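Deliverable D4.2, example record:
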Amino acid sequence: MLELEGRTALVTGGAGDIGAAMAAELTRRGARVTLLDVKSPDDAGPWLATASAHGPVDYVRADVADRADLDTALESAGPFELVLANAGIVESAPFLDITAEQWDRQLGVNLTGCFHTAQACARLMVAHGIAGRIVLTGSWVGTVPWPEIAAYSVTKAGVGMLARSMAKELAGHGILVNALAPGIVAAGLAKWQWENEPAYAARAAGAIPLGRPQTVEQVARTAAFLCSPDADYITGATLLADGGCSLFHQE
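Output generated by the structure prediction step:
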């Protein structure tokens, strides 16, 4: 019997490297996964292929920053027993150069979008008597400043407190809520910078005690653990799985 056999799962930011890997890992463990992302199904194609490596997945298009849009999508797709609120964006800029629009976009997706997803899915869990799991994707930079991503870092710090607050209030409903804080992952902007910006690659390599960036599969396995029976007494925690990045910092 696979440990997540028959469980229904939602992964937001599913049409992205980390989200697709999460979906693939949950499917490998027996869950029935729905991916949610703002991309069109055609544009999401490459990530859907990755996500379905171990079995079919469903796809729903919605914007987590738009509560009405998200609620409409969840009305037909939900409820879910496992929810991975993973959608996120990062726009790199020195602090003095961050625009109000960049600040608002990152808070809108990374923190407010996480709140929308978690609250909407938790309401459905309570309404259907589901003792579910909610995992919010944070980051090691939620506690350790990293140059030129102040707005992003603030959103991830907020995600950690959101998980703690939710965990305390939802425990009576049997819902466990945790945050996952990866390190420097070979995905998205960080992967591009690692491969194309020697100065960034040198700085990042110096910050990782294990000497190499984290793979999306490693992030996915940690997320799946928080959804598994082995994590049935963990709530309100931020699981720091960062390869030691937060142990020290050098530029």
